[in-house]
Design brief:
The complex is a heterodimer of chains A (257) and B (284). Chain A has 257 residues and is an alpha/beta fold. Chain A contains ten helices and ten strands. Chain B contains eight helices and twelve strands. The chains are: A alpha/beta (257), B alpha/beta (284).
């Protein structure tokens, strides 16, 4: 029996006028898999992520999400259903936690919002779920009534993760989740991500420019340059035996600890 | 036009100040608003001879629906004798020559700011509310296209975040006025800054209730006998304010009380905010 992919992207194309941001990109993502997308700034990584989530209009191509019932073509999905999907079975983790969190409400409300979005109307239950997820992302549950701006950068990023994971999504898109964090905080977040992915059976598309991050987390790797995928394969294979000149350059330019 | 009316009204103005075309366009907006209870309808708000924030939205609605046979009552914070109420009542007396009253039962048209009369309204009466900010989702979503989309798709979860924060900070839902409601199980609506105490009166009210926001250029409405439900959590149900003392003038225990400071020693008394209701109770 073959495993069905969770998400298939076919010939996805997005241009900004003259600029090809994503040029005919295709790949499949399987349940429980982490796909790393790596490339230099301006290579179209973030555009690809936003295009997959249909947060911006795409020019051509198809994104198909296979949930338990039947495959869904995202472009043909009516907007209410798409927005609902984004806040239940999908999650989006921003590079800057300030974009993903509500900074003027408490941590508990931040986590509870997605539950209230899908119709939970019991204060006690929402609060219980919020403290459970705070513990899951290693934030002390007594900080539930603290505002996110009193949190450190790493804690804010973990809070954003809890906010997304509370509805138990199947697919999480992450845009440089470790950007702007110092090395030790980064390591802790990566550790947490790795264990959460395993216990929750998440599928993740992870955009980053940090080779260390993909080597630790990603099962498969896509290397992008100028809006095109220049190389893809198993992470270790791509990083240990790079074929494309750009990948070779990228790997050799990385500082080894 | 009969001579009696002509003598009472200020010369040089059309009946009810606004020109007929404007009144007609506002009435068209109101018809749409009545057809979709709680839904905000844009309208071309006019300059009125008073500043925004003093009830320009309510005045335009009143001017559009008022007729020569109407009896007008104007309430400001429950009272008929405060500046805003007196001036608006005088304004309509000048430009319409209609009868005015302070009695809720005699009025056919009631323009109000901050209160719904304690005396139950009847079929055939029209309430006009002055609305400062019509959009209930504004505090959580600053973008107008986005809030419209949230209304269209019934995405009202974010509003509960505010109630959640209230309970977290104060132990109960502390929103005391302009308490958000769901209209006809479909649209979320701001009932204008009436106290939470008045929210239950919105529900299944036999009177037609019209809302006008002049600066924000929005109209909305509650047709008679519309279900209006105040938002709450299952384990923190909606409740209204209560007082442990009666009104010191009339002894009423069922009305909304204002706290009035009466001297420099911190002395205070609690009296009905609805002056008409207080007088009627004192008489009987």
């Amino acid at each position: 029996m073959t495993i069905q992919p969770l998400l298939t992207v076919e010939q996805l194309t997005k241009t900004y006028g003259e600029i090809q941001a994503c040029d005919r990109i295709s790949f499949s993502l399987y349940p429980g898999q982490i796909l790393g997308i790596i490339g230099e700034s301006g290579s179209g990584k973030t555009t690809l992520l936003n295009a997959i989530a249909h947060r911006l209009p795409i020019d051509s191509g198809q994104v198909t999400y296979h949930n338990s019932i039947k495959p869904t073509h995202l472009a043909q999905l009516p907007e209410p259903d798409r927005r609902r999907l984004m806040r239940t079975e999908w999650g989006f983790v921003q590079q800057n936690p300030r974009d993903g969190l509500r900074m003027n409400v408490t941590a508990g409300a931040n986590i509870g919002e997605r539950l209230m979005d899908i119709g939970q109307r019991h204060y006690g239950n929402i609060r219980t779920a919020a403290s459970k997820w705070l513990a899951q992302v290693e934030i002390p549950p007594e900080r539930i009534d603290a505002f996110p701006h009193t949190f450190s950068g790493g804690m804010q990023q973990r809070l954003q993760l809890a906010r997304v994971l509370v509805t138990q999504p199947k697919l999480v898109l992450m845009d440089e989740p470790t950007g702007g964090l110092d090395v030790s905080v980064q390591a802790r977040l990566l550790d947490l991500l790795r264990s959460l992915v395993r216990t929750l059976n998440l599928s993740v598309i992870l955009v980053t420019h940090d080779i260390g991050v993909v080597r630790l987390l990603a099962h498969r790797l896509m290397v992008m340059q100028g809006g095109q995928v220049v190389e893809q394969g198993l992470t270790d294979q791509v990083l240990d035996d790079p074929q494309h000149p750009y990948t070779q350059q990228l790997v050799s330019a990385t500082l080894l600890p | 036009m009969n001579t009696a009316t002509t003598n009472l009204t200020e010369p040089g103005f059309n009946f009810a100040y606004l020109d007929e075309q404007t009144k007609r366009s506002i009435r068209r907006g109101l018809l749409k608003a009545v057809a979709i209870p709680g839904h905000q309808i844009p309208f071309s708000s006019r300059e009125m001879p008073m500043s925004y924030g003093w009830g320009t939205g309510g005045i335009q609605v009143t001017a559009s629906v008022i007729g020569k046979s109407d009896t007008l009552k104007v309430i400001d914070q429950g009272a008929d004798d405060t500046t805003n109420a007196v001036n608006i009542r005088r304004f309509f007396k000048k430009v319409c020559g209609v009868k005015t009253t302070e009695k809720t039962t005699e009025a056919t048209l009631i323009q109000t700011r901050h209160r719904i009369p304690e005396t139950p309204l009847n079929e055939g009466q029209v309430m006009v509310y002055q609305v400062p900010i019509p959009e209930p989702l504004r505090w959580i979503e600053p973008s107008e296209p986005e809030t419209r989309k949230m209304h269209a798709l019934e995405e009202y979860g974010a509003m509960y975040v505010k109630l959640y924060e209230d309970i977290t900070q104060y132990g109960h839902i502390a929103t005391a006025y302009d308490y958000p409601v769901m209209v006809n199980n479909r649209y979320m609506m701001r009932p204008s800054p009436i106290p939470r105490f008045d929210n239950p009166k919105l529900n299944m009210n036999p009177a037609l209730q019209l809302f006008g926001a002049g600066r924000e250029k929005r109209l909305y409405a509650l047709p008679p006998y519309t279900t209006v439900k105040s938002l709450d959590f299952e384990d923190h149900p909606f409740s209204v304010e209560t007082w442990d003392k009666p009104c010191e003038f009339c002894g009423a225990t069922d009305s909304y009380l204002d706290e009035v400071v009466i001297d420099n020693e911190g002395g205070r008394m609690w009296i009905c905010s609805d002056t008409d209701y207080c007088e009627e109770t004192q008489k009987s």
